[in-house]
Design a protein that fits this description.
Elements: H1 4-17, H2 26-35, E1 37-41, E2 46-48, E3 57-70, E4 77-84, E5 88-89, H3 91-96, E6 103-115
Antiparallel strand pairs: 1-6, 2-6, 3-4, 3-5, 3-6
């Protein structure tokens, strides 16, 4: 496992290149770097839970994760997508200021960086 500083440095570099955050100003990227926290998840651990308040962005720095959604008719959860390193998760919730619409679960070891590029209520 990489040191937290290395994880965050890699995350910031990915954010500079990511389509959803490419338009952020350098100052906003710097704010994200100051606030971002790295975290390791093991196989099967929840990274994001469906319905939680999404006032953050989470970047998958390394590994893979399943995006899962509960079928309201059956109550059963099913996988709707597989994301890999470089993917932002929870971004729709953050930008739309709504609860998350899906859960994200680690498939094997996953390293993430989570932060907020702008204070809630300001433009993202």
């Amino acid at each position: 496992m990489r040191a937290p500083h290395d994880v965050l440095a890699a995350a910031i570099e990915r954010l500079r290149e990511h389509p959803m955050t490419r338009g952020l100003e350098s100052e906003q990227i710097a704010q994200l770097a100051d606030r971002a926290r790295s975290r390791h998840f093991s196989d099967g651990e929840r990274i994001i839970c469906e319905g939680e308040v999404g006032d953050f962005l989470t970047l998958i720095v390394s590994g893979k994760a399943e995006v899962c959604k509960v079928d309201e008719a059956t109550g059963r959860e099913h996988v709707v997508n597989l994301v890999e390193a470089g993917a932002l998760v929870g971004e729709m919730s953050f930008f739309q200021k709504r609860p998350t619409s899906a859960s994200v679960q680690a498939c094997g070891d996953v390293e993430t960086a989570r932060g907020s590029p702008a204070p809630r209520g300001d433009s993202p």
